[in-house]
User: Fold these one by one.
Assistant:
Number 1:
Amino acid sequence: MSHPSGSREPCPSQEAIRARCFHPSGVFVEFRKEEIEQSIPDRFEQQVAKYPNRIAVKTRNHTLTYGALNKGANRVARAILAQRGEVNEPIALLLEQGASLIAAIIGILKAGKIYVPLDPYHPQAWLTFLLEDSQATLIVTNTKNLPLAYKLVPDTRQLINIDELDSSLSGENPSLSLPPESIACVYYTSGSTGQPKGVMQSHRNVLHDIMNYTNKGHIGGEDRLVLLHSCSFVTSLKVILVTLLNGAALYPFDLLEEGVSYLADWLISEKITIGWFVSTVYRHFVSTLSGESEFPALRLIILGGESVSKQDVEAHKKYFSPNCLLVVLLAATEIGTVRLYFIDKATRVDGSTVPVGYEVPDKEVLLLDEAGERVGFNGIGEIAVKSRYLASGYWRRPDLTQAKFLPDPEGGDKRIYLTGDLGRTLPDGCLEHIGRKDFQVKIRGHRIDPIEIEAVLGQHPGVRDTVVLAGEGTSGYKPLVAYVVPSQAQAPAASDLRNFLKERLPDYMVPSAFMVLDSLPLTPNGKVDRRALPVPAPTRPDLGTPFVAPRNPTEEVLGGIWSEVLGIDQVGIIDNFFELGGDSLLATTVISRVIQRFQVELPVQLLFQNPTVAGMAVVIMQNQAKKAGKEEMAGMVAELELLPDKEARRLLTEEAETERRREKWIEKTEKTIRSTK
């Protein structure tokens, strides 16, 4: 019997929008259902055979054709096989974003291994746990990340440096026979037990997801996709494969290295046709746009990982052409993508959040009440997904797999996964995402269970009790807030707690604010009353250092930028940006605004190297001095030297220091000459 949350006829308005969703070339090849019954390398090698000389990957430093990428991946695969044989086992990958990362991923899969991504920006303790839990037998890395790899596995026999592969390794396809049900990758997500858990995906399930993206978005060989995601985020693999398994071109862009300020130029200059964003990153990106830039090639903007707001849709209508469609999706690591919503300039959004859309093939969404019964129209229920194309389960956790992946009561090979998300189906079949049943949240696209953060923070000797919640920040940004009951009379400083967590958790799991309480509020039955927890005031946190006011106009402007981005009332010039609650994504926004305000060229890494207003002011003033010309540089350097902050003086660039010494040498020489006359 048909049911509201089950299948229904396609929505005419959605089909009309999708009918315009083609590359201007009109070239599109359908991804057929039978093509998921193979391995990922098989599909990739088919594209290589068709387009050996077509660009596969392009970065600022490298351009690889399909043929060159395939040879590089084959050499990685053969290096792995030479060390580990053909057993289907986990292989860790420790690489930053770029062409080498792409070749290594494909190489691991070609070797018949299970890909386990390690983000080199994550703390060593976190990476160590992932290695131990995944039981990875080998780390594939490069020279840049080799020092970190040695810390993780001191035995060099467990490492492969792709920058130093044996030149005699063949570039021919290994041609291993991989059944579609074999495990392709394990991605770790936050867990309610206080430890992350690995989600296993088979080649078949990954290809099924790629099939749906390909056919719904009409993605083909003429498309160019930008890659913005960290390798540890499952969406990165989707973007990589939906590109390379369709003969399209991939353009990695490292936000941590380059920042959102330069993203618009990259999209325009490289004629990117599809941009895939986490909602928060999209908001930071559009905040850098003035309306003057045009993106004539951009035809799809895909948003996922977090809720999409009405303001996001308005920004799309304001900054992008009528030919560019917005696509909202609902997905999770365990279920893949289950809903898509296509939006054009005429689409109306009545509520504050945007629906997550309509069904995709082979993924049936059920809305269930507390008794496990389906709810009717306008009824709110837990989103459950029924499909034969769900994740294989949790790595080395058969108990958790059995509890979360339920058999279909109607029989057959389909399973049901309870997502913990709440939803409501509209009369036309469109799904609205309402929120969570539990306390899990999405932060920058990562699903986080605050219990995991609480478990780590509770290990701090100065913490007796703690609760972590997601607050509401500016532009949809959800800052994490940690409420702490100290174990001693003297509460630990926020900077101490933050540094403690940074050594153990990725930065997106480190709270932006810490509030010290005498006790946690409780409900009548003794549970923590989260609704009674106070909202943090937008004040400067206790850093254990005194507040020092700005001393010049540059520092005043910088302090204002930091204050606005961080959402706090004041910033001292020796305050550390990251101890104030900043993270890598907010750093890109700060640098973007600094570039706009001061008209200087600055990398995002500058803020990591100079995390105080005083330090950044020195670099900006020095940069301005260079632009002003050599004659004015000496005066600028002299002005900088008057700054009393030792750290600021230390942060003078090498060129500026050389110029200062040259001026002093000239001055000393002139004095010597005058004294001898």
Number 2:
Amino acid sequence: MNERAAHECPKPPLRILLLVDSIEKQPRWVAETIRTIRDSTALQLAGVVLNMHADEQRLPTRRRLPARLLNAWRKRSGVALQAYLRFDERRYPSTNLDLFESLDVREYLAGLPLIEARPRQTAFSDFPDDAALAKVAELDVDVAVLFGFRILRGPILSLPKRGVWSFHHGDNAVNRGGPAGLWEVFRGWGASGAVLQRISEDLDGGTTLARTWVPSNPISVNQNRLAVYGAAAPLLVRKLKQLYRDGEMALQPAAGVTAFAAYSERLYVTPSLGEIAAGIWALSRRLIQRKLYDLKYRDQWQLGFATDPAQDDGNVTPQTSFFRFKPIVPPSDRFWADPFPVRHKGKSFLFFEELVYASNKGRIVVVEMTKSGPVGKPRVALETDGHLSYPYMFEHEGQWYMLPEMVDSGKQQLFRATEFPDRWEVVETFELGCDVVDATLYKHDGLWWLFAGTQASRYSEFNELSLFYADSPMGPWTPHRNNPVVSDARGARPAGFLFRSGSDLIRPAQDGTPAYGTAIAFKRIRRLDTERYEEELVAHATPNWSPSVTGMHTINSAGPLSVIDFRCRVRR
């Protein structure tokens, strides 16, 4: 079919059915997702199935006092947990729009067929009644999305052409059941996951369609839940649009990823009183330890360097025996981070972020380096009205360019040296369609690729990796069709130059779990083209070479010089 014919005969939108417990009361994250589906030209809301038993489950049952006391005793764990969660929510409230605020979605669903379902109920599961099933079959929908009911089972799972989709707010490889976002905090897990899945009769064991991970909050269940739900919510619309564009291929596992899974952990349920007490004690201990740490120490980002005279000027493969690196310690009133070395006319120059605590605004400084360390004091190379960091450096057609992170300004600019290394001018402003951090370029198979950290939504941190490509490092940039190509705080955000190790192309990435700047993950890129992106973890560098080092997040090399940054514990 030619382009004109394709335009005249557009593909019909995917028909989406919603299964809900209420129309008047939906959490904000669900309401905004429904609105996004409604506004998409690729998707069409086809109807709503309303669980008529949901309100009955919430209505209080009138009982005599002895029966009420007995019921309260039986549910004591749930009562205690809800009391703690209310306290936690008041103590650590949302600093943005509350994702769990109850909103009315009637305006988004106006005019849609409404199916009132009265499911047969067992202890934990709902089986929609035959009348509701018949009406669902008449709607001929592509996907049903579960935003209500309990554990859904029965013929409803096979009526939509592409099944019933649901979120599990937990990493279903290690955490099935619930409550969402709680066990990761109580158990002190570094990362919290979420999964979009096509559900089956196996609880949380359906076909995984998409997943994400965020750093776990060490002390607040509410903050942890906000982070997980904020990162997970966009997964649904992304996958639906991918299904619309690519058809059945969108539902196939990525190359090298098997659909087979085994789960050998416990089924997580509402914690017992003992587990609640143990969880509160564990997070309280972390909070006390953090307060005591802050009284005695402060964290300072410092630099480290190592040299290998055997390497020529074209080397960009870093040394990775970190105990060999010598520290470059900044004055006590500032930190130094994000080091990028370059070779220019036989000399080594090191560009990096300098942030003076009093100003709380980063700038880019430069210092010449020898095998003995810095020559003199760093001097300012680039400073603007906004914050600057991560000065990605590259040479192109005989000129030096710098691509610093400047996300606070709401734009991404490219600078060219007018007098290397001290004077720079803006030559391009990149239009990428979203905020990016730690932009990193690499030329591959005739195209320039821009790797950058991006956000899942306005409610989340920069825990995803997006790609853009162009014929020139000046742009214009085209976003990859599968952006974001990685959604995982354990290794999405760039951490320095891409480099070759033998025939392997390696991408350093930041591991931001359990906190920002913890470690560096090295990813081998298996496929990089305009259709697909695939990578796998091949090494993981943790800050264990010195007891005073608590984190690291950038590694680079140019010629004989390799550099890192690391977070150091310094006595107050």
Number 3:
Amino acid sequence: MTVISKPEVTVNKLPAILPIGNAAQKVLVINQMLPAGTATPGVLYEAVQKNNIKTMFGEGSFLQNALTQIFDVFELSGSTILPQVDVIALEDAGAGTASTATLTITELGGATNEATESGTINVIVGSKKRYNAAIDVVIGQAITTGAGNISDAIADAINAFTELPVTAVNVAGVITLTCRHKGTIGNEITVKLEGLIKSGSDYVIGNVKFAPTLFSGGATDPVVTNTLDVVGDNRYQTLTHPEQYGTVFSVEDFLDNRFNVNNAIRDGVAIVCKVDTLANLKAYPALSNSQSLCVPGLKLIDEDVYKGSAPAEFSFNISAQLSAIRALRLTENANLIRFVASSVSPGDLEGGIHMASFPYFNTPLYLTATIDTGVGFTAQEISELTIAGITVIGNNVVGNEVILGDVVTTYKKDTQGNPDPTWHYLNVVDTLSVSAEYYFNNIKRDYAQSRLTQGNVNGTFTMTNDVIFKGRLVKYYIDLSDFALVPAGKEAVDFVTKNLIVAINMIEGKITATESFPIVVQLRNILVNLRTTFSIT
């Protein structure tokens, strides 16, 4: 067939030129696995799912527990849009030793080996929310030996928690608790007893006395020096691992070097929780002056029947929860309704880059039990810790949930050692991070192929000059004002335009721009003065 089709017409379909958003959120978790796990230590596992973490990393491992916290936060959110979770598993150091503690049960005032009163004791190991065993004591029950004795019942209840990184063995009323892992992390595992009555210096149910000790003796953690070599050019906005590994490998040698890099966006923040005394927590941030490190601090408790941290939780689980929440907040369209106050505007009910400027404080940590009255930090201590660079968590005002306080980094001084508050709050770091990424992505797209001239541009061709480039940067700024990251309005735009310097180097084909970049900050303090008067006339 001969077909004539004139005139020749071609209609090309071109994509819309839309702003480019930021990369999807990725969390990297580093922790210890058990030998029963099928994963290979030191390998980067990407997009790990909850349904295989027991098989991969060993049921009852530190790593399985941390990952469970992250995935439980995701499930609590109800969001179907979730961040990616990647994992590097570590094996225990061969020369390490496991930490142990004891719970000693003795009979007071006789040798009958029979309980004289009934009651219920709650034995908490590691995490009050997850590993809280309620053991009933009944009159006439054997105490330390014999069928159905109290000591065996407690050991059996602890061992029934198959995901708990601790095992228990009773020998005549001395229950030895042994961490499943070698290393120092086990030394901070909490042991807490509830439901007892104080009689003199003893804690009892009738004639049965209970006395725990701190976990101790754990030594030699895995070597982590080259752990992050397997990451390559992958970017992780959030990274978390136990504090006992130190932060040299993850922050000083890794994230700090990625805060500003050529031709890429690779910055991120490590969230690393520490359990210690008030004095030691206040001193800790001085060891790492970094905008890439956030350290939640938990108070170390050493009381008669409470040994460990306040709140009663694994420290790496606190880090995991905060990491999951941060990643959710910055995930486009993630459901945040359970992690924001009921009074917020509709735009803050979903995740996205706008949440970088939204306060972290008052965010609930649903997976953490509330802190007992009298064992947490005072208001003055919270202020001191926040100034020092420690993030504090605590009960809400009605005492029914644990919430975040100000979330801060350890950054305090510039490179010359001068006090510098720029990166004190994590929200500021987040705001600049997402803004820089937005600029980067859109500059890459808008100038994928372009000529550079010092003269006027010819609209027929793809060209730019200093004036046009300056206008493009101002447009990006205006875009970000729509996300509540930077001030909006003519005055703000005029300020940015006036203080934007663009220089062209024609020999190198290079544009250098310096832009003053005002940001939105969190409303952290409100002072209202009410003057007393006695008349309205």
Number 4:
Amino acid sequence: MAKRARSSKAVSSLCVLLLVVGAVGIRAGGALESFDITAGTPSPIPGQILARVIGIKWDARAIPVQFSVNTTLDPIPNPLGAAFLSVAAARAEMQASFNAWNEIKTSFIDMRITGTTANPGVRGFDFINELTFRTAANFTAIASSPSVTLIQDTTLVDGDRIDNDADSDVSDKISVVTDVDGDGDLEFPAGFYKAGTILDNDVQFNTKTTNGFRFTVNPAEVDTVTRSVDLSAVAVHEFGHSHGLSHSVNNQPDAPDPTGATMFAFIDTRDPASERAQRTLDVDDIAYSSYLYREGSAKTGPAALQPGDVAFDKLFGVITGELRHGVLNQPIAGGSVFTVDDRIQSLGVAAFSGTTQLSFNPANGGLSFVRDPAVAILNGNYAIPVPKGKYGLRIEPVDGSPVPVGSISFTTQIGNFFGQQNFNEEPADRSGRHGDGGDTLSVSAGQTRRNIDIVTSADINIDNFGTRDFIGFTGAPAGRIYAVRIPGSQVTAAAAGRFLRLKALAFHTGTVDASIAPTYAEAMLTTGRVNPDGSIASIQLTRPLARIRMLIGQDDDLTPIFVRGGALLGQIIQQGIRFGFIDDVFLVLRIPTTPPPFPGVSALPPLVGLDGGVTTNDVPIFGFSYTSDDGGATFARRTDFNFRFSLRFADLFGRDGDDGDDDGHHEW
């Protein structure tokens, strides 16, 4: 379930341009995005101006950020039965959720509930940072955290009425945000403010009878009811948005800890263990809160060190560079670059690449894509704040699995608009080979490692599938084998006369329960042949070309398995097909053979990604997918789905390296 949940002008004594940033959905990857039209640069679209995409944050003068709880629904509605949660209990839980962020020693963000409001309607831009259980009739998400921000550098003057009521929103009598006149709304100090400054943030929780949720506060009350959810799990996430953090794509740091970052875009309300884990911040969440609000970055004010604080530069360093598309020869907008802890092979902190621009229509406040990538994408730069240590780097497209581009940012959507989210996930190294393990990168506290530039590989994928429509099969018995045929003719056609290096196998894996890592007995690449009618005659399961036992897959994503000795295996496959020793190759995935129940609250087997099962599919059902429930003695051909299994090659003598079989790590 998603925890997800226009640009407008507000006219006062001066014209202040504002943007409502809706935190849609529920690695952090960085800041929520607004845009900046201060420069006034003409857009290629006549009558419009370019809007540079930027991050949002609170000005130091607004910290501590003051919130008010709406008390007009007490007790809080329970769409599943009798109301039981008081506003007082919800307020205490929400302040504890704020404290999860406030207690980060390297971040100076400070968010506090300081009062109440009695708004009988839904939230709106009124200079009251409202926490409310009232939502509009058309609101369908669990919760959301929309902010109103400046979209141009602005000097606010005493007496400015920004939200269109009769009350002044700016005072020259104060130096920090204060309710000067005691009427319940906040006034900003007069002065200069940068585009991207948050002026108002509200957090709304959906309790409507039609599509709302029962919110609980006791961890012991978390259950498997899909429309019941832990308030803190939702609130900690939404309060990340409240101080400017974007969604993350990190839903599974590693096998021992398959529960993702708090800022991951979705929550599994059927899985109590997953819900409870959302209360605790991940290193990704902590790193970006600290990066946006760097403790020790000023001598006075909130950013100055106080007792118990730790300077950002004492614990964190930063990795910077550029991500470019190796086929399109373009800087990439919205690609994910993330660290892997070399000691434990655990995912760390991720960044989204690119500095981008949109087109802004002053007449109606509308935004549109600029159709020239040279104008829309200024660079593919990224910056990753990381605790001091030694890391590998990986790259991954934001391609819909596990998170759609629309749940992240303008920048990821711009990259998708230009077809840039089509590269393969893989380790990154200086040689350009990618996938052989990658290089390691040492980062010291206070250090910025610059010019760590990455170019995506020009891989040759054989993908007999389209977009992911479903994951299945929940009724699979223990030991089921999934197989996908790659006809020998496809390998020959992909080679096009070149010598290929076998680079990776990839299987779209998943699980019903977000707190469980999808685990498989084995994955392999092997040989086989089919009968004239397409049924399988045989698959070689005992002597495969490549095999990995106990595969820990990614949840709802393609899990790549990088092959050592790929140059030799590529030649064995090509020459075997050429001389008739190999008819076809098969990608094979076997689920655990241990009898059910499977791990997890749902006790269901690990799943595979499926393309098909819809009225109009984006590609044909090729008939290359098979299942076996008798250990491989017989295989049933599937004519309803394409299994999303991928075979990946690299040109042996192309840009991706010489022989590609240097498996050593290198220091960056």
